[in-house]
Design goal:
By secondary structure, the chain is α/β, with parallel strands linked by helices. 48% of the residues lie in helices and 20% in strands. The protein contains 13 helices and 9 strands. It has helices at 2-25, 40-55, 70-79, 111-119, 121-128, 172-180, 193-199, 209-214, 240-244, 248-282, 293-299, 301-310, 313-321; strands at 27-33, 60-66, 84-88, 136-150, 165-168, 184-187, 204-208, 223-238, 286-288. Strands 1, 2, 3, 4, 5, 6, 7, 8 and 9 form a 9-stranded mixed sheet that branches. It is globular, with a radius of gyration of 23 Å. Bound molecules: (2R,3R)-2,3,4-trihydroxybutanoic acid. (2R,3R)-2,3,4-trihydroxybutanoic acid (EAX) binds at residues 34-35, 41, 70, 88, 90, 143, 169, 190, 207, 211, 232.
């Protein structure tokens, strides 16, 4: 009987082990991002999760959560309370100053130019700077080209921006651009934007079509102008420990998953931009699509002169000349 007892105890023990096995062996990786899951920023983490869990036979479990305060997410990654974030570069320059070069207005001609530069050695060199700040810059994703909306008037020329209270991201470069245009830039986290627009603390804001559509900003903004004033990159940032802990094979899977995230994010931005203007008009916005870009660039001349001095002018030139 004692043998029988031991054997059944052993079997019970084994059964428990088998049941608990996969859970015990799973390592959890937490990823935070802003905006609803069904958006271009949600698309990246979802593709990352699907790819990485599949390639590692579910030895990892990716947990995705939302936080509309991007600065807070980056701080959490730095401290290590979360593993990774997909964030716009809005607040990133406050952590990694070299990133600000990509936040310069009218730097990129179009999406292909922006994606090409970010995927090239120029983009890689900037990702490499994250390490010195206790962060791992994994891969560039995107938000898209930003456009101005407001609740007061049609904006046709730079002069129409004068006196508008415009919410900007917590980004020095963007704030400088809007003050040079004569607006009153008010930096705040995305989480504060809708209440600020509702209460009239600010008249306007600027974001890519994808963000405006995903967050129904048409409910609080009537006028939109396709200013295309700046390309808004995004980036997957992780705690350095998260990737250092992976063995070489899993690290390769991690990068494959990051590339899948990039592809899913960019495809969604492309789709949103193709359908967005029509959708926003349908929702009642007035959208001005013909813009004298040269006039806006000219109005920003004093700011461009400053950035030539304060940023890496040679890299700015390389980016502009990139073909
Ligand atoms: O990352 O803060 C912003 O305006 C960002 O574009 C938005 O949160 C998406």
């Amino acid at each position: 009987p004692s043998t029988l007892f031991r054997r059944s105890a052993l079997l019970a023990g084994l059964a428990t082990l088998v049941a608990a096995g996969p859970a015990l062996a799973q390592t959890q990786i937490t990823i935070h991002h802003a905006l609803p899951p069904n958006s271009h920023t949600g698309a990246g983490p979802i593709a990352f999760k699907e790819t990485f869990e599949r390639l590692t036979n579910n030895r990892y479990r990716i947990v995705i959560q939302r936080n509309d305060n991007e600065r807070e997410m980056i701080e959490s990654v730095q401290i290590g309370t979360i593993d990774c974030t997909f964030t716009s570069t809005g607040p990133v320059g406050n952590f990694v100053p070299e990133v600000r070069i990509f936040d310069v207005p009218f730097l990129f001609r179009d999406t292909a130019h922006a994606r090409g530069v970010l995927d090239s050695e120029i983009g890689q060199q900037v990702l490499a700077r994250f390490n010195a700040r206790g962060l791992h810059g994994v891969i560039w994703t995107e938000n898209g080209f930003r456009h101005l909306t407001n609740s007061r008037r049609d904006v046709n020329t730079p002069a129409d921006i004068r006196g508008l209270k415009v919410r900007t991201m917590e980004n020095q470069v963007h704030m400088r651009a809007f003050s040079v245009l004569g607006a009153l830039p008010t930096p705040m986290a995305f989480s504060e934007l809708v209440p600020a627009l509702q209460q009239g603390t600010v008249d306007g804001q600027e974001n890519p079509i994808s963000v405006i559509v995903a967050n129904n900003l048409n409910q609080v903004q009537r006028y939109m102008t396709l200013t295309n004033h700046v390309y808004s990159p995004a980036v997957m940032i992780c705690n350095p420990g998260t990737t250092q802990r992976l063995n070489a094979a899993d690290r390769a899977h991690f990068m494959t998953a990051a590339r899948a995230a990039q592809a899913a994010n960019r495809a969604r931005v492309t789709a949103d931009e193709a359908s967005g203007v029509e959708e926003l008009r349908r929702r009642g916005m007035t959208v001005i699509t013909t813009v004298n870009t040269a006039a806006f660039q000219e109005a920003l001349a004093p700011a461009f002169a400053e950035w030539e001095r304060t940023m890496d002018a040679a890299t700015l030139r390389r980016i502009r000349d990139w073909r």
